[in-house]
Design a protein that fits this description.
Blueprint (H helix, E strand, L loop, with lengths): L6 H21 L5 H14 L4 E11 L2 E13 L3 E6 L6 H14 L3 E6 L9 E5 L1
Parallel strand pairs: 3-4
Antiparallel strand pairs: 1-2, 2-3, 4-5
Helix pairs in contact: 1-2
């Protein structure tokens, strides 16, 4: 069963996408992921959104907790996970990574953004769990 995002999630994802489009319009494709991340964080911050960069995602395995097993590129407003890529094509492994991060972060909404495209809307993938 797919859960629908709340209005708050929709509002935040719209603001994230607007900021990402602005970064992509200015920079264009072909740069490193870290460059897009730095610029997107600035754009989101200027839009008064709280952003955690390389936010740790813990993994629980039976009675073992690994506090910093993975790091999400961004978590915005404590509710939307954002994974950034600058690759030729989004592969199933990128989608699986985003879904796994969503599951272990216990967040409901995620965005996988590929900046290495002519128009950013071609690189937007939304996930709801």
């Amino acid at each position: 069963m797919k859960v629908q995002p709340t209005y708050a999630h929709q509002n935040i994802t719209s603001r994230i996408l607007s900021a990402a489009i602005e970064v992509h319009r200015y920079l264009g494709p072909g740069l490193l992921e870290s460059t897009y991340r730095t610029c997107l964080v600035r754009e989101l911050t200027e839009r008064a959104l709280r952003v955690q960069v390389e936010a740790p995602i813990p993994i629980d395995y039976r009675d073992l907790r690994i506090d910093m097993a993975y790091r999400a590129d961004l978590i915005v407003e404590d509710s939307v996970l954002v994974e950034l890529k600058a690759v030729e094509k989004i592969l199933p492994v990128h989608e699986a990574q985003t879904l796994t991060y969503l599951k272990h972060s216990k967040l409901r909404v995620g965005l996988l953004l590929n900046f290495n495209v002519a128009l950013l809307k071609q690189g937007i993938h939304r996930f709801v769990r």
